[in-house]
Amino acid sequence: MAEQYEFHKREILGTTTMTEPEVMAVIQAKKREWPGNCYGLTENNCNHFSDDLAFTLLGVNIPKFVNSTSNALAASSYKTDRCKLERRERFASLATDLLEKHGPEPQGVGGPSGDLARDEIKIAGEDTDEAWKEAKSAAECAAHAAAEAAGQAFNTNKWLPSQFRPEYKRRITQAAEEAELRFAEALGGVV
């Protein structure tokens, strides 16, 4: 099967200053961090392991092209999920605002203020990444500072998928659920 593949190129990343026993200790620690049953094609594959190992041993990441396809797929899938959650939160918040301002049908969305409501819904549905970018930037600065304070190197390639994305998704899911609950409560008050 190996005959089907063509060697692309070799990248020399550097030389570690660690001794052989230190390298073996790092590898043993990585075995616990990277169990085989946690393998994921797009976010936890052998190239992610290689990147983490290279960063630990040398302080450098592997070249971006090595994992570019899986990283792009993971980011795309994550962005789709994130955008759906953000829209849920925006629509529920907007629906609550409209309900409180204009009341239920026919006075509300489909009534005299229908054009305004449609415009607001259109704006709420537009995909903007600004909130995510701001949250990511702030969280990355804080994580980097915490790693520095602890005397540790900060690996963005590992931090983004393993820590920031799940935490941001948890927060936006919670915000969407809270907005939908507020809407349900508001709806219960006017019907």
Characterize this entry briefly.
This protein has helices spanning 20-33, 46-58, 68-102, 114-125, 130-149, 156-190. The chain is mainly alpha-helical.
Helical stretch tally:
6
- Helix percent band: 55-70%
Using the alpha-carbon principal axes, give the shape. elongated
The Rg value, from CA coordinates, equals 24 Å
Strand content: under 5%
Mean pLDDT: 78
| Separation, N- and C-terminal Cα atoms | 67 Å
Question: Major sheet: size, sense and barrel closure?
Answer: none
- The topology string of helices and strands comes to HHHHHH
| Quaternary status | single chain
What is the SS-derived class? Answer: mainly alpha
Can you tell me the residue ranges where pLDDT is under 50 for at least 5 consecutive residues?
106-113
Total count of strands = 0
